[in-house]
Structures are given as C-alpha cells and as structure tokens.
Amino acid sequence: MLILNKTARVFSTPSKRKICEFLRSFHFHPGKRLFHKLVLGIETSCDDTAAAVVDETGNVLGEAIHSQTEVHLKTGGIIPPVAQQLHRENIQRIVQEALSASKVSPSELSAVATTIKPGLALSLGVGLSFSLQLVNQLKKPFIPIHHMEAHALTIRLTNKVEFPFLVLLISGGHCLLALVRGVSDFLLLGKSLDIAPGDMLDKVARRLSLIKHPECSTMSGGKAIEHLAKQGNKLHFDFKPPMQRAKNCDFSFSGLQHVIDRIIMQKEKEEGIEKGQILSSAADIAAAVQHTTACHIAKRTHRAILFCKQRDLLCQSNAVLVVSGGVASNLYIRKALEIVTNATQCTLLCPPPKLCTDNGIMIAWNGIERLRAGLGILHDTEGIRYEPKCPLGVDISKEVGEAAIKVPRLNMKI
Ligand code: KG4
Ligand code: ZN
C-alpha cells in the first residue's frame, strides 16, 4: 500500500527529485527477470482502461482492467466525454495495480507502450497524456501502438505462429481482414464499409431491449445475442447475407441492421407491444441475426483465404487464419469460420476470450514485438499525437475485388 501511495504521488507531480525518491522506494529483485525485456502496456482507446506488464518471453507479470461496459449499457451506448472522465478517474489506479501485481518497479521497465490510434479521440488522449508524463519522468522509451496491430499480434503471445498469417478482426469498433507479413507489415484485404459487426449486434440488442431480459442484463449486446440465440430458431426469419454480389472481401452490416429494425417494428405491431418491451420472438430474431452475421463473415473470409492461396501469400505447409476482437468470442461465428478453414485446409486460431477483447496485455506484447524488431521505439516524444482514424497497413482491397474470386458454396450447418 505504501508503494502504491508513493507511486500515486509521483504520477501526479512530475519533478526530478520526486521520481528519484519514488525509484528508491521500490524493492529491486535482481535475478532472472533482469535479463528480460519488460514492457508496461496501456490501453484507453475505447471503453476499457487497461494496463499490463509483459516480459519478452510472453509472461504476463501483472495486469489490471477497468471496464466501463456497465455504465455505457445504462446510457445505451458510449458517450465519449463520459468514457474520457472514467478513464481519467481510473488510469492511475489501473497502472499502479498492474505494476504492483507484476512486482516490477517502473525503473526496471524497458519501455512503455500505449495505444495512440485508432479510437475515440477523448479516450486515446487520456492514455497518451498519462503515458507521456510517465515516460518523461522515468526517462524510458515510448512505443506508440496501433490498436488493430495489437489485436492481430496477440496470437503470437499464446501460440507459436510465424509470419505470414491471415487475420480477421471483428469487434464493436472494427472489422477487417488483413495479411500479417511482419510486426508492422500488413496488407489490408477488406474492411467494413459502414459499421462493425459488434456495433450492429449492440444496436439490435438495444432495439430488442435485451438489457431488460433477466438473463442478459449485464451482458454486452453481442454476448446477449449469442446467449439468447441458443433458445431461438434461426429458420423463423430469413435475413439475406449482405453484399452477395460484390466479389471482394469488404463487409457491410448497417443494411442488415435496418432490415432487422423493420422486422422488430412489424413484430411489435403484430404482438401488440410497445417499443421497449421484450418480443416473444426475440430469441428467434437473435438466432437469425447471429446466423446471417456468421455467414457473411465466413464468406468474406473464405474469399480472403482463396485470394491469398491464389497469390501464394500464405505459408504453403501451414496456412493460418487468426480471428480476434470482441466478436471473435462468439462460438457460433467461430464454428462458421471452422467450416471455412476445414474446407480450405487452414488452421484456425483464436486467442482466449479474455485476450480477444480489449486489454492491456496485447498492448504490452505489441511493445515487446516492436522492441525485438527494433521498430517504432521513441526516445523523444516531442510532437507525438493520437490519431482517432488510422488505416492498418497497405490497402489492397481494390486488387482483391478485381480478382473477383468466386467462393464455392459451403454447407453452413452449425
Ligand atoms: O474488442 P472489443 O472489446 O472492443 C472493441 O470494439 O474494440 O469488442 C466489443 C464488442 C461489442 O460490440 C460486443 O457486443 C461484442 O464485442 N461482443 C460479442 C460477444 N462478446 C462481445 N459479439 C458477439 N458475441 C459475443 N459473445
Ligand atoms: Zn479492440
């Protein structure tokens, strides 16, 4: 506790004398750990304040997270100034918790890695200014992190995966397919042209008022849809998968969302209930939207695999598809993807659910990857800014569309 209080004082008062006192207050543990690189990772790009300390072998020495989901569920979506305020209130405590759990003193860190793009401007700003204050006091290198790069590389912390591999990132804020050729070498094959699948599922869950459902009240929209879908019949509704004629790897979810909105309105009329009450057909709608989402994601991913195989972009002996992001924790969608990888002789890998959603570990690990590769390690943070919008890698989605690969129909019996 004493250490935590001292840490708190130094973070809020950046003076040279204080940082020296602070460093002396830590007990050092000379030994094996001193031979390893150690990175503190900080994540505040959306609605989770997270931090972790990871060593170069992938050991997670300490982690802490504060999720804002409950607050945002109540307001029906993320209100950026509210998210910013919650990050401000929690960031110091979360970093302290991660550091003290790791038993690593700040002076032992090799670097601090922090998400600076893409994300909500107000949220990114909190993590960045806190981190800059920290690295300037500690005189440590700073490693700016691209949130999507971190999601993509997480699998290399849990599994032995060599470059190149294909990655599908599906969450509340993003949706993309990319070929990962190196730590910071990505080819973007396709992305959502409108909203992300998690965002669509969140909107549908909100429109179905699943927060009032006794079994779903504390779940994110996507999780609530997955939960309720198990009790429903997907065949009661026939939603067409989006973009069936576009032979590329892009995605779209807002059209599907509007179709579902109309169906819900129609059902409310039929059942004679007000908006805000739970439809008797809510589980069937959840099952059908989950199925259509899974088929759409599976089809675009199937085409991406075929494109990469056609151009010999994946490892011939072991082609790997990595799926990550919050929506990747959906087991129904994973099964749909398994059908695709079985049909194309690929290996499907997903990080454990805890590492699929936003966390500090993936940011710290991305820092380790960059340290090892000697990429993007800043000793001077002058002029560093956060970037709310930032594409990932080189966009070759037009070329993918021009290849117009026809995807064989698969039996999506899930
Ligand atoms: O990666 P994440 O924590 O945050 C970002 O968006 O970056 O993902 C959160 C999203 C939310 O939209 C949530 O509804 C969705 O992931 N999600 C799920 C499931 N669990 C979380 N979607 C479908 N099925 C789930 N089991
Ligand atoms: Zn994310």
Automatic annotation (TrEMBL):
GO molecular function, one term: tRNA N(6)-L-threonylcarbamoyladenine synthase activity
InterPro entries from the UniProt entry: ATPase_NBD, Gcp-like_dom, KAE1/TsaD, TsaD
Co-factor remark: Binds 1 divalent metal cation per subunit.
EC class (word): transferase
Subcellular location: Mitochondrion
Coiled coil: none
Major localization listed first in the record, in broad terms: mitochondrion
EC number: 2.3.1.234
A GO cellular component entry from the record: mitochondrion
Record keywords, A-Z: Acyltransferase, Metal-binding, Mitochondrion, Transferase, Transit peptide, tRNA processing
Reaction(s) catalysed by this chain's protein: L-threonylcarbamoyladenylate + adenosine(37) in tRNA = N(6)-L-threonylcarbamoyladenosine(37) in tRNA + AMP + H(+)
Cofactor(s) needed: a divalent metal cation
Gcp-like domain boundaries: 59-365
Role played: Required for the formation of a threonylcarbamoyl group on adenosine at position 37 (t(6)A37) in mitochondrial tRNAs that read codons beginning with adenine. Probably involved in the transfer of the threonylcarbamoyl moiety of threonylcarbamoyl-AMP (TC-AMP) to the N6 group of A37. Involved in mitochondrial genome maintenance.
UniProt family annotation: Belongs to the KAE1 / TsaD family.
Name under which the protein is recorded: N(6)-L-threonylcarbamoyladenine synthase
Provenance organism: Equus asinus
Gene: OSGEPL1
